[in-house]
Amino acid sequence: MSERKGGLGRGLGALIPTGPVPAEPAAGSSAAEQVAVEGARFAELPIDAIVPNHAQPRTVFDEDALAELEHSIREVGLLQPIVVRELGGGSYELIMGERRWRASQRVGLTTIPAIVRSTPDTDMLRDALLENLHRSQLNPLEEAAAYQQLLADFGATHEELARRIGRSRPQISNTIRLLNLPGTVQSKVAAGVLSAGHARAILGLSTPEQMDAMAHRVIAEGLSVRSTEEAVALTGGGAPERHRKQSAKRLVPEAAAAVAESLSDRLETRVKVDVGSRKGKITIEFATLEDLQRVADIITGPPTA
Description:
- The protein is an alpha/beta fold.
- The protein folds into three domains: 11-136, Conserved hypothetical protein from pyrococcus furiosus pfu- 392566-001, ParB domain, CATH 3.90.1530.10; 196-249, no CATH class; 252-305, no CATH class.
- The chain has helices at residues 31-34, 63-76, 98-107, 122-135, 140-153, 158-165, 169-176, 183-191, 196-202, 208-221, 225-236, 241-248, 254-267, 289-300; strands at residues 40-46, 50-51, 82-88, 91-96, 111-117, 271-275, 280-284.
- The protein has a five-stranded mixed β-sheet, with helices on one face. It has a two-stranded antiparallel ribbon with strand order 6-7.
- A hairpin with a 4-residue loop joins strand 6 (271-275) and strand 7.
- The termini are far apart.
């Protein structure tokens, strides 16, 4: 039987204490360990003590999606806990996360991280979790998993998340994108050997193999985020080696790099400037169609009535 990998983020589980909150914060403890969440507790539950929700409308689960989730759990563990309610007698009923529960069973886990709800009020629980997210210091993977779960399971919006924790919508979207990294790279981010900035640059590559190789290179060579972005730009297109060498000779001039940095700050997203022998190209990244509209409104101004 496989055991869940430890030492990685638990998503919303990192925001919820497992026991009573001490009257005085313990030295070195995080805000997530000091702030109670009314109506919920976090626990590692026996996976065979959980039964599906009889009201679950979905009866067919996509096999490819389950296999992908199973692979992710094998690599980095389950970052997003399921949500259950207590039935009594040591058993629990699923409220949210049946795909996660099924995939964890297929991996062979004997326990599963869970939020045990004691209130039927989803809005109240969501608000309590948002408040804890505002206070807590999470690693980038925990943060990304918490954002994703609040959006998917608890009906939060990008705007609500951004407002409650003092971040921009692009920051929320770009953090969630870290969950698209292969498990080997996610592990490095969770362990703190790879920064979120490096990880976002690595996401510009096309395949998990390229991302994993670049992560190893960043750590081995001590590359800065800017150097990683340049290395990704030279590698990501899959150009033949001779073309990459020619491109390496045409590194972005300092002035163009300054413009790219200024645009990145103005648009709150990553902007690349490529300078060729005859012409150049500006690439503006966006996370969602909503984010694309936000960028367009900054550039052109919002549409008039």
